[in-house]
Amino acid sequence: MAKIIITEQEPGIDPEAGAGVRHLDDVQLDRLMEAFAIWHDAAASSYIRRVRGRYRLAFLLLRYTGARLGEILRVDDASDIDYEGCEVRIAVRMPAAMRQVLRAVPLPPDVVAAVLDYLNEFPAMQGRVFALDQGNFRREFYRRAEEARIPRPLSHPHILRHTRAIEMLRAGVPLTVVQDILGHVLSSSTTVYLQRPEVMIRRILKDRGLL
């Protein structure tokens, strides 16, 4: 299993990485997270809280891993989450002829704690917390996005993948590490989040006083 280790900042990564890729800005992301939290906390019964808790946890894993929706819904909370090490093991999509590879993606401690809190409250859900129907998850995501006033073109789960990638690059996480976290087999899949080369070249030359 590939273990992701974050090293020094990637040189040459533009702070405006992702300018050409649709993603949520900080305000939109905060509103969406708040919408999920309010919806979850407004549950009127233990049953509704159990149901809504699964959607909220799936959302949190999407937000902090940058994984694909299908990958998160295949996570087994009983075997794929390292609760002490605060990481989740996600299957990497590989050609059919190749064996499955797992990538270990770090999680914030409070997200891991939220999963544990849920399992403490609903122990019968162990092993199937994230086993949600994709269509049902998308419908709830669209509703929360509407409540958060997210523009319709950005109101889909995959937007969290783009958002996390750009968030990491702007924070100086090395491109190769972002590639590993996202599970990109080809580096060209990750470089789409960078500025167009000609834009980056112009910025570099201007910063150096050469333009």
UniProtKB/TrEMBL annotation:
GO biological process, one term: DNA integration
Boundaries of every Tyr recombinase domain copy: 19-206
InterPro entries given in the database record: DNA_brk_join_enz (IPR011010), Integrase-like_cat_sf (IPR013762), Integrase_catalytic (IPR002104), Tyrosine_recombinase_XerCD (IPR050090)
Cell compartments where the protein resides: Cytoplasm
Any GO CC annotation of this UniProt entry: cytoplasm
Main localization, broad class: cytoplasm
GO MF term set: DNA binding
One Pfam family named in its UniProt record: Phage_integrase
Keyword list, A-Z: DNA integration, DNA recombination
Coiled coil stretches, renumbered: none
Listed name of the protein: Phage integrase family protein
High-level lineage: Bacteria, Pseudomonadati, Thermodesulfobacteriota, Syntrophobacteria, Syntrophobacterales
